[in-house]
User: Fold these one by one.
Assistant:
Number 1:
Amino acid sequence: MTAGPTWVKSERQQERERFRRSQGRRNASIATASVVVFVVLLATIATNAPGWTRVQAAFFNAEVFRESLPDVAEGFLLNIKIFLITEPLVLVVGLLVALARNVKSPAFLPIRALATLYVDVFRGVPTLLVIYLVGFGLPALRLQGIPSDPATLGIIALTLSYGAYVAEVFRAGIDSVHPSQMAAARSLGLSQAKAMRFVVLPQATRTVVPPLLNDFISLQKDTALVATIGALEALRQAQIHTLDNFNYTPYLVAALLFILLTIPMARFTDHLAERTRRRRGA
Amino acid sequence: MSLLSIEGVWKHFGDHSVLRGVDLEVHAHEVVTLIGASGSGKSTLLRCANLLETVDDGVIRLDGEEITDPRVDVDGVRKQLGIVFQAYNLFPHMTVLANITLAPRQVHGVPKERAEEEARDLLSRFGLADKAGAYPDQLSGGQQQRVAVVRALATRPKLILLDEVTSALDPELVREVLGIIRELKESGMTMLLTTHEMSFCREISDTVCFLDGGVLLEKGPPEQLFDDPHHERTRAFLQGVRESGRL
Ligand SMILES: Nc1ncnc2c1ncn2[C@@H]1O[C@H](COP(=O)(O)OP(=O)(O)O)[C@@H](O)[C@H]1O
Ligand SMILES: [Mg+2]
């Protein structure tokens, strides 16, 4: 303990805190009331609009919802599986390609050129087109050892497509680390590769996480594109049920599942971005 | 034989000649200081000695080995040199201890326990014992710069290059950094440094060199250079320094 005056909270400070608390309560009540009014208003307008019964029958049919949910949910498990396998593959491909574009040694010129070509091509071609090319084109070659399972082919196609994006994200992250860091590492005697591994990459990774998560949210959605080559995932299951019932509720079921998956990821991205901002501001 | 010998070194950036035939010797256990106006080429000379810049002509030898030979093992040369920059350049994602042990472990193959033990010894020697677990942004500028010096020392270099290590610091922090340079001199470390702190330069240097527009105009013991400079331009530079109250 250091000697000196001891603090007794003054009357003025107590009054300030009482005021702040009451203001906090007031703000919370206003927010709640405003949300309730808004939702009631929106529901009233929607249900009274002409054609609401038709919308309800086509999109919000409770019976079709119950009936299609198990199949669509089962299909959705395949989406999750595709996503969980593709994600680490994309990270590896993206990082390797970004590093390959960064090597300066002349012996690696062909590798650098190849990496550049890969990024140029796969960022330019629509993901759906890559899925068609891989999903229909590869099996048509009838080569030994080429998988025929649409989910596997979809994983390959998505990895090729997203690998190119993620490579660019990594490259931007590497470029964002100030050159003086590389100079400091090299002047300690670290080789180019070790300086990259211990000094540049760890710092690049931090700036890269938010945009990376953004790409992953996009990847989660794009797993539905694999439906086009016949994988029985959520969208495909919803399509089957829609055709059976002439009702669009199954699509709504699939949409709901995708949203339920992306919302936590989106909030997590926000949280990380906020944390980075706070750190910078500090 | 001198530890570092610089002979007729030229360096151009575009058509601007930044170093113009510089000759300089640093003997073992000697402290050599470069002074001169901003832009006179002091940093560039240190960066050439550390192979962060490639010379355009001339020879630099370290312990007799020509390090300006393009066939030289660059990492091998840098293993023998320590450099501390004006802007510290600590690695922000590593603790103080990790900053210091990185090169001993990854470049010199020192086992983790021993590297950390030696790092802690150095830290306590420079009054930083309680900072081993801190991250650079939790330290004051003076503390960061002292850590940067310790990091350069941890690989047991033959020679340390110090580039204006105090000019980014608040006046009251300058003293603590100068203190450790003084201690290094007492321990016999060979140093080549640049500084704007003229009274410190005078106190610590065995040899002072005045660089003027990339030319090493004159060199000598501090008493001679400060009190009885041969060249008019040296006199003018020192006069300017005196008027700004730094001598
Ligand atoms: N990488 C570079 N490219 C172009 N010019 C440079 C570079 N580095 C230094 N210079 C120029 O070289 C001159 C000497 O710089 P420097 O060695 O930093 O001087 P000092 O350290 O004495 O202030 C300055 O005119 C500076 O602008
Ligand atoms: Mg300088």
Number 2:
Amino acid sequence: MLGIPLKYNVRNLFVRKVTTSLTVAGIALVVMVFLCVMALGEGLTRVFTASGSDRNVLVLRQNSQSELQSGITRDQVPLVETLPGVEKDADGKPLASAELVVVLNLEKREGGSSNVTIRGVEEKGWKLRPGIRLTEGRMFSPGASEVIVSDGVSRRFKDTNVGEELHFGAYRWKVVGHFDAGGTAPDSEIWTDVEGMINTFKRNGYSSVLARTPDRAARDLFVAGLSSDPRLALEGKVERTYYDEQTATAAPIKFLGLFVGVVMAIGACFGAMNTMYAAVSSRTREIATLRALGFSRLSILASFILESVFLSLLGGLLGCVLGVLAVKLALSGVTGTTNFATFSEVVFAFRLTPALLLTGVVFSLAMGFFGGLFPAGRAAFTKITQALRQVG
Amino acid sequence: MGKPLIRIENVVKQYTRDTQVLTVLDGLSLEVEEGDFVALMGPSGSGKTTLLNLVAGIDRPTSGTIHVGDAEVSSMSEGALARWRSQHVGFIFQLYNLVPVLTAFENVELPLLLTRLSKADRRRQVETALGVVGLSDRMDHYPRQLSGGQEQRVAIARAIATDPTLLVADEPTGDLDARSGEEILVLLERLNHEFGKTVVMVTHDPKAAARAHRLVHLDKGVLKEDVRAKEAAGSIGLAAAVEVSAGK
Ligand SMILES: Nc1ncnc2c1ncn2[C@@H]1O[C@H](COP(=O)(O)OP(=O)(O)OP(=O)(O)O)[C@@H](O)[C@H]1O
Ligand SMILES: [Mg+2]
């Protein structure tokens, strides 16, 4: 036994061209705005959550919120690196990198200036971040005042092309390469060798040590060893957790996205409801006829909910197309915002992932379902005899 | 004539509006034999549509019983009634009530979607039904592309598509010009005579009523007059039917 054919609903939607288009446009707009805001949040989240591994431990001075506030002396580094739990490389040396982080205020290409993180790393620092790769030029040579710049930073800041000279105050570095870290934290950074950087900035220590552990047990052992050694006054944070905590920057944006999305969706839901109420009331006699012919309440209910869901699906799909276009055309460039934990620029791109698009579609289906529920109920539960009396 | 198809016993139908009780049918009893053609007449507001709706199972009486065939439609549940209607009743309305977005073919196919018939069987039955009403060549036309008379013929094809025993028609010619109305009446007569359908038709038009074998007059919810017309009426109708189908 079949229900009311879907073509009945589809054709009815196309008969009501104007109201259908307006409703579809309304839902599309909601889905588009939702997608754009969520894509922004997604891009920001990716910078932090995709950054950092579960197996890397970031060692900081106790109670420091970020690497910037942290300090580790030269003599502490070998103590840290030889604690149990740290993975050894093929050469038998610990897989760890002592690093120095400084924030520089650099001139932007479009004018003005902003803070950028410059990070001094040891040779092993590269290995500890598997997603990173050179996109142009070559690696810096230690002690030669050379830097490599992330693609994201180089797109936004002056004097960062390969071959150019980057200067800050009296300091000068030669840009010898560009790198890409796949949307993670180093995409907002400039890298150089740590010893050279300590000399340049006349520091007597590092900011942090990043160490690899072979597994969870070793990691916990290492973290426990750090905190139980009173000489050190250091603490170890799982690298992923460290970046998760900084995602605080993205959280309000995602919340905003959801909030704006939900508020607008409720509006669009009423739009769909209004459209469906109008549809149901203009077809009162027709619906009663279908029921007289023997179509059950359930099939009438399903039919009208389906019509509403189909209507909003059109809106949802259009919204996805508009969202993709908006992100591609208007919001394509890399964007920056301030990370309030480090006060430096975070470079990120709007990320419209397939999962987000799917969310947008599901979102529109939900609008259609809830918008269609009551009108469909009216269609299914009006008395047949009364509805048949309606003229027009 | 055969055994009674419809047995209405002591039916009361009341509407309650606020505190006022409106008695539309007041203890009405009536039997209709299988294969009969009954015209239901009476002044406006006398309860004709109400009675027809009760017999067709789209409404339930306040008290009393209605049997149609083996089914006691006055006490069936909503879902059971819907299923029963889809198998046993064909509806013909004054305003045709075709679905505007569906073609003639698709409109006639609608009640068949409630059966277990295959697509091919449905097609065959739709074509047969449209053939009976003489609209085989208008299968793919939408209602707005048809005249009122043609629309009503499509509606009749829809009513007979599942081959129900009972056809109920509420002023089937009420919205048609004389000629088209005549065609519809001839068709109903033919369905009754040739295909053995029991027809209950509400009408205001004495000429339409004259086609029926039996006239039932309602007034203020009670039976006023019950006249069995001469058998001759049937043969006149048949002659006219031949005339009309020859003219097509
Ligand atoms: N849902 C309802 N609520 C209240 N009163 C109703 C309802 N439906 C019908 N009535 C009343 O019942 C009475 C009989 O109505 P019905 O439609 O059966 O008359 P009818 O004989 O078909 O009239 P007409 O020739 O004008 O079609 C009328 O007075 C009508 O106003
Ligand atoms: Mg009436």
Number 3:
Amino acid sequence: MNRHRHILLAAAAAVVLTVTPANAENGVLNDLEIAHAAYTAGEIDVRYAHLALAISENASVREFAATMIRDHSAVNEAALTLVGQLNVTPQDNDLSRVLVDTATQKRAELKAMEGKAFDCAYAQNELVYHQLVNETVEGHFIPSATVPELKALLSEALATFKVHEGHAEHMVAALGCST
Amino acid sequence: MSRPYLIASCGIVAAAIAAAASVAAADNRPHRVVVRSFAFEQQRLEVKVGDRVEWVNEDIAPHTATAVSGEWDTGALTRGQSAAISFGAPGTFAYRCAYHPQMRATIVVTETEADGAAH
Ligand SMILES: [Cu+2]
């Protein structure tokens, strides 16, 4: 699991570094790119959750997945409302693309599994994924966002995702997966 | 022993509510529990028999207030939604959010001092 975490974090760090010089003088993602990446990150977790509901027969894993769909959908709905109010269009960017590509690979891996192997792989991925997203939202998105409403939404989203991270940690422990 | 029952509000549909006599005074103001930042504002709330407790969700994420015993459940409350439960009998009711199991709190229902004259 640690290996996976390092690979993902390295990928994220690389993306942040690559994206940085390509954008604006400040060397940070702009508001529209942040909005796009945050929305994408939520959609990705919803897709993982649908996969879990299709494959897992473990009640606690299925409950967790249902909560991911419920919560991430609510956050993304709030994001769409904000985007509508501000009358802006989020911008696709390198970070969003890497998130999507990485998740596509991961879903392919997960789809080939079943039973406890799937449950453990899904649970561990959820933990690592939320850690990665939370570090990125807290360390990069919130400090870089300039629109107050976006900053506020990201902060509330972060609080939600941190609860998910804790929940995922419990799920991994309860499943008794080998690391 | 009569059980608490749900008074649906704001279009929330009551699910799996135990039958109970309508003990609550019709016009009593509910005790309000704000659900915010993945917590129930009052960890422990003391009310009298016949009182209503209303939960209001202020988070983006939907929550519930669900008796650990399974006796009552507000159902999903999205942001800004609320639902109330009336407590018709004394007792200590542990409850949690069905979606976020770490969210827990307790309602303590006690007899009114002069039962029948209190309202
Ligand atoms: Cu909840």
